[in-house]
Design goal:
Layout (H helix, E strand, L loop, with lengths): L1 E3 L2 E3 L2 H9 L1 H11 L11 H23 L4 E3 L10 H14 L3 E8 L4 E10 L9 E7 L7 H18 L5 E5 L8 E4 L4 H16 L18 H11 L10 H9 L5 H5 L12 H20 L4 E3 L20 E7 L9 E9 L5 E7 L3 H21 L5 E3 L3 H13 L3 H9 L3 E3 H6 L2 E3 L6 H4 L11 H17 L7 H34 L16 H18 L11 H12 L2 H17 L12 E3 L2 E7 L5 E5 L12 E3 L5 E9 L4 E6 L10 E5 L5 H17 L8 H8 L19 H11 L4 E5 L6 H14 L4 E4 L3 H18 L5 E4 L11 E3 L2 H10 L4 E3 L2 H4 L8 E7 L6 H7 L3 E8 L20 H6 L10 E3 L2 E2 L4 H11 L5 E2 L7 E3 L12 E6 L10 H17 L1 E3 L5 E3 L5 E4 L3 H10 L7 E2 L1 H4 L4 E7 L12 H4 L2 H8 L2 E9 L11 H16 L1 E2 L1
Parallel strand pairs: 3-4, 6-7, 10-13, 13-14, 23-29, 23-30, 24-27, 24-28, 25-26, 25-27, 28-29, 31-32, 34-40, 34-41, 37-38, 37-39, 39-40
Antiparallel strand pairs: 1-2, 4-5, 5-6, 7-8, 9-15, 10-11, 11-12, 16-22, 17-18, 18-21, 19-20, 19-22, 20-21, 33-35, 35-36
Length: about 1150
């Protein structure tokens, strides 16, 4: 940031700083105006990174010169005495001359300035002629950062001003890719940049008062010392260890602003949100910190009572075989090496402690390091079952689970370690043992208590870690960085040693407590070995996996199409087991928590209060109330008490009224618990065995297309359809899409037809017509989907269309009970009866879940198997059911709700069937399938947003939808009239999964609409707007409850996105709930999920109203994926009217 005359000029880094911290932007602005002096941070790390970056840039330049391209080098004409205006003129001159490449192009306007590494010429007209330019940047990191995308957006924006046409794409060239640029579509990020630019512009013109709140950027900030001095002077509440933003907000509402004031509270008041117990915990923490501060000493208090839940009771008996583990990882590496250093300390043969570092520069080395450690840990436990693996905080077991999923290796060994409670989290032990006078419960802050003194400077280690991570990303961690590797290694070793010393100190505390007469049991030794049947299965899966992976490279970039297909299939055979294991691991993780922590867990319920007996009996049905909390309870979930004993089953859950109905067991009939844990498990044996049969065939015969696996292999390999016409498309030029679907479905011969249906485009309508067309051809049809509800919906649509055509269609739904609809669908449970019906012609179409179609006796039972919502159904499930049909139709939209996953999986094996076929593209190409491009639901103004944000501008609205609108009297009594997008800003802080402020705002909107508005449909029929014409959507169940409290008459019209997929209403209101990206439960990835926001906004026929905190539209994104998610929200705001 700099001042040029009266104008403030910004560099791309200023945009990143603005997102990171408003106070940082304010300090930089003051410095640019000459009101203060900005601290300068230089060092060998920055210089070394700069030198490596320039070397990579020069190498790419030489590559371009070798291609025979004309290159304008503006760096050579830069004498240092030129003005920025003359440098820009040089850039314009080179563009006018039509140079193929412009190196070091200076770009500038009244607000931004910068120098692009490369501009490359493309065949698209501009003001200069039949060519224009796009931006290419060179970066060391193989995985592009959000800051790079933001920089490219700024350069592309400046470039548009110069050439009069907007670039379509921007590019990044990274090392080790043979200089192949990675392309980024500008429209996927431009709205995010434009909104940011407006925000920065307003801030510079009229800067807000800011405060130096602690943010993640603080550790890297040049202004750190100044900000820290101010916070210390204010005795800010952020220094209370473990306090949350919502608690700080609540305390401020109670008039408590300082740590010392919190420490002195005697009577805990009822907080505006959260529990009194949680507030009492942070009060006690502040009190202990204040004692330590005032006495200038290390101070701690041991928690009571001393029982089996106490932290010291979690310590196993120490052994000479114990291991102390620590990882160094790059948390933002999505595809490259994540855990680049695995370090652990153990006793060697001579009884002395030994440190073992395992470095990983490549995916192959990361896999080997993981396998090496797992083999050591497994052998140690086999030799001494009482040995344990100690670590600090949950990161290490989580990383091991992620590595297991990523490389699909050592699954049995890790499962045995987890089953046997081999891991001991010392952080959890500390938090349940004592309250210490520390501001953070990091192992570094605790070290003074057990007299551990590090030799490695932490600041130097932090700098070296960054440099090493950059080098690994760039693929050039060589001997020139040996000193930095040594520093990182020393840092990691001291982390391991510190964990050992912490364990020893905790053992001393335990001995002191026992000496005082208290009984502290040791954890019971658990058996980790799986049953013999599971072990036999593991051996069989290993045999198949080895056969499929023979000769397949670990690095995805080195695989052919067939090798990638082998890789995916090899790991899909264990897809369901990984999901099952992850479910159990999560259950045991929650089981190990204190009951006081259950309020923050989605698979636990606390604060249960018995309401009534719904149905009497020896195993009665009881109803319980629960307080506001973000839980994920599902019908059929098994419930267990806090000791892990079976308690009952969830029959129903009402988030709006916060009630849960529980079917008790006989031995729990009279028990009324305060808290329960949720768990669910469905056997996937049939699915797994079907995948294993496919794997067996591929191992023995390769990818030969033979029944019953022809369609499955076509899908796995993404083979082009033989039905593509001379124009390279499946659909004829003069053909309606629904007619093309019916024709192509009948012409399939062991092939796959994919149909992508954006919101309201008639996906179910198309599926129903296909079923009738196939019946007319005398073909048998199967229908499957992720739920019975989706299956029945398509069957009913088919029956409706058959009746309209005067056709007899015999439809069977494989499920228990009686069909309660109006369309004559028969329910059957017996598999053989259904199979006979298909064979003798008495059944035309069968709807069933994957557990039916994956059975061997249903192979080739239908001519065409239609998979509805194939954008949600995992590829593994679709491959498992594919042998049931001679041909396969995938019907769905991968841009809507995704399949939920609990585990990590090897790349490519975790996706849905349609996502796999689209291979990462947003829309399906003409040669791969059909695209339903016309919506019959959304008003054109809503369609514009949906189409731009999610479907590359390919969706249009039917002309008559223009009439859909909300009408109101001309007296201005209603703010919400017309059609399209609206935004209602609601300012609040500290809210996570519940916002009473937004609930009140939504109540006012609904009242206004119901009192004054009418609804005009596409046929111009006008009627009074009623409660049935409104849907209210929230991301979290806790907010659903808050909304229901203020709008009880709309109870069944309020829910999460998952509840309303497939539904529609004239008005949709979406409450975003969280105050900021940092407050969002489950992180930014859930709140900003593109698929969920697409579904939420596309339920609206006429008016979509977004209610939320303005802070949510300026998230600090770390990756291009996060930027792409946020871009949809920002584009919405650009198109929306503020109310």
């Amino acid at each position: 940031m700099r001042q040029q005359l009266e104008q403030i000029k910004l560099a791309p880094t200023d945009a990143s700083n603005f997102l990171s911290c408003r106070h940082l932007a304010r300090l930089d602005l003051n410095a640019a105006k000459g009101l203060s002096e900005r601290p300068i941070r230089y060092g060998p790390l920055l210089e070394e990174l700069k030198a490596r970056g320039l070397a990579h840039e020069e190498t790419y330049l030489k590559y371009l010169q070798g291609q025979g391209l004309s290159i304008a080098r503006l760096d050579e004409s830069d004498t240092g005495s030129q003005t920025s205006g003359s440098r820009v003129e040089q850039t314009i001159s080179a563009m006018r001359d039509g140079a193929d490449i412009i190196y070091q192009a200076v770009l500038e306007d009244d607000m931004w300035f910068g120098r692009a590494d490369f501009l490359h010429k493309v065949d698209s007209p501009s003001e200069f002629g039949n060519w224009s330019y796009e931006v290419t940047d060179t970066k060391l990191a193989r995985e592009t950062k959000a800051g790079t995308i933001l920089q490219l957006c700024i350069y592309s924006y400046l470039l548009e001003k110069l050439q009069g046409v907007r670039p379509v794409s921007m590019y990044v060239v990274t090392p080790g890719t043979e200089f192949k640029p990675v392309e980024y579509r500008i429209d996927d990020y431009a709205a995010y940049f434009r909104l940011l630019e407006r925000g920065i512009g307003q801030f510079i013109t009229d800067p807000d008062e800011t405060y130096p709140d602690l943010v993640s950027h603080c550790d890297l900030c040049a202004w750190w010392h100044e900000c820290e001095k101010r916070r210390r002077g204010d005795d800010h509440l952020c220094y209370v260890a473990g306090i949350s933003n919502s608690q700080i907000k609540g305390l401020r509402a109670l008039g408590v602003e300082r740590l010392a004031d919190l420490a002195k509270i005697e009577e805990i008041p009822d907080p505006p949100q959260g529990s009194k117990e949680a507030l009492a915990r942070v009060r006690d923490q502040a009190r202990v910190q204040l004692i330590g501060r005032e006495n200038k000493t290390l101070y701690y208090e041991i928690k009571e009572p001393f029982n089996v839940e106490h932290g010291l009771a979690l310590l196993p008996v120490p052994t000479t075989d114990d291991i102390f583990l620590d990882f160094e990882g790059n948390h933002f590496a999505e595809k490259g090496v994540q855990e680049y250093l695995t370090g652990f300390v153990f006793r060697g043969a001579d009884g002395q402690y030994v440190y073992k570092p395992l470095w990983a520069r490549t995916l192959e080395e990361e896999k080997k390091a993981f396998e090496y450690f797992m083999d050591v840990a497994t052998a140690t436990r086999a030799r001494n079952p009482e040995a344990h693996i100690y670590h600090f905080a949950p990161y290490e077991p989580t990383a091991l689970k992620r590595l297991m999923g990523r490389f699909a290796t050592r699954e049995v060994e890790l499962d045995e370690l987890l089953r046997g409670n081999a891991f001991v989290d010392l952080y959890s032990v500390v938090r349940r043992t004592l309250i210490a006078s520390v501001e953070r419960y990091s192992i570094k802050d605790l070290e003074p208590f057990f007299n551990y003194v590090r030799q490695q400077d932490l600041h130097d280690a932090s700098m070296s870690r960054r440099l090493v991570e950059h080098a690994i990303e760039a693929g050039d961690l060589d001997e020139t960085l040996d000193e930095h590797r040594r520093i990182v290694e020393d840092y990691n070793r001291e982390d391991c040693e510190s964990a050992r010393r912490l364990r020893d100190w905790l053992e001393q505390l335990r001995a002191e407590v026992v000496a005082q007469g208290h009984d502290l049991p040791r954890p019971i030794l658990q058996e980790g070995e799986a049953s013999e049947a599971i072990s036999d299965l593991d051996r069989e899966l290993q045999r198949l996996r080895d056969g499929l992976l023979e000769g397949v490279p670990v690095d995805p970039e080195g695989r052919s199409a067939e090798q990638q297909a082998r890789f995916i299939l090899a790991h899909m055979m264990e897809f369901h087991r990984r999901e099952d294991k992850a479910s159990w691991w999560e259950y045991f993780r929650v089981l190990d928590l204190e009951e006081g922590d259950y309020a923050d867990e989605r698979r636990a319920i606390t604060g249960l209060h018995f309401a009534e007996e719904v149905k009497a009996g020896r195993a009665p049905l009881h109803r319980y109330n629960f307080p506001s909390q973000e839980i994920d309870a599902r019908r059929g979930d098994e419930l267990r008490d806090v000791d892990g004993s079976r308690f009952g089953t969830v029959v129903d859950v009402n988030y709006s009224d916060r009630m849960i109905d529980i079917k008790k067991r006989m031995d729990t009939a009279d028990v009324h618990p305060h808290a329960l844990l949720l768990h669910s498990q469905v056997s996937a044996k049939a699915l797994r065995e079907s995948l294993m049969r496919l794997g067996e065939v591929v191992v023995a015969e390769g990818f030969t297309s033979r029944e019953p696996y022809k369609a499955a292999i076509e899908l796995l390999l993404r083979r082009p359809s033989p039905l593509v016409n001379a124009n390279g498309a499946l659909q004829r030029d003069d053909e309606k899409t629904v007619d093309a679907a019916c024709r192509l479905a009948g012409e399939l011969d062991g092939h796959v037809l994919a149909i992508q249906g954006p919101p309201g485009t008639g996906k179910t309508y198309t599926g129903a017509h296909m079923i009738c067309a196939l019946k007319n051809r005398g073909l048998k049809v199967g229908v499957t989907a992720v739920s019975h509800k989706v299956i029945v919906n398509l069957l009913e649509s088919a029956m409706k269309e058959a009746r309209k055509q005067g056709m007899d269609l015999n439809a069977v739904h494989r499920q228990d009970g009686e069909y309660e609809g109006d369309w004559g669908i028969e329910r059957k449970k017996d598999y053989p009866a259904i199979r006979r019906g298909l064979e003798d012609g008495s059944i035309d179409v069968v709807g069933a879940t994957a557990w039916c179609w994956s059975r061997p006796d249903f192979e080739q039972s239908v001519d065409v198997l239609i998979v509805d919502e194939a954008g949600q159904m995992s590829l593994s499930n679709v491959l498992a059911v594919a042998p049931a049909g001679r041909s396969l139709v995938l019907l769905g939209d991968p841009q809507q709700l995704e399949q939920p996953l609990q585990s990590s999986h090897p790349e490519g094996s975790e996706v849905s069937a349609l996502y796999h076929l689209l291979d990462g593209e947003d829309t399906i190409s003409l040669d791969k399938g059909l695209f339903l491009a016309e919506t019959y639901r959304l008003h054109p103004d809503i369609t514009r947003f949906t189409s731009e944000a999610y479907y590359e501008g390919k969706v249009t609205a039917r002309p008559e939808l223009e009439y859909q609108a909300i009408l109101a009297p001309l007296d201005g009594a209603c703010r919400f009239t017309g059609s399209g997008l609206r935004y209602v800003p609601v300012h609040h802080t500290g809210n996570q999964a519940r916002s009473t402020e937004e609930a009140e705002a939504v109540r006012e909107i609904v009242t206004e609409l119901l009192d004054h508005a009418s609804w005009q449909d596409k046929d111009q029929k006008v009627s009074k707007l009623t409660e049935r014409d409104i849907l209210i959507v929230a991301p979290y169940n806790a907010q659903v409850a808050a909304l229901t409290e203020v709008l009880p008459m709309l109870g069944d019209r309020i829910g999460t996105v998952d509840r309303f997929q497939g539904q529609e209403a004239p008005v949709v209101i979406y409450s975003m709930t969280s105050s900021s990206p940092e407050d969002a439960p489950r992180g930014m990835g859930f709140l900003y999920d593109r698929h969920r926001f697409n579904v939420a906004t596309s339920r609206a026929l006429a008016l979509c109203i977004l209610v939320g905190s303005p802070v949510l539209f300026e998230p600090e994104c770390k990756t291009p994926r996060q930027m792409k998610m946020a871009n949809g929200f920002c584009r919405y705001l650009e198109l929306a009217q503020r109310a």
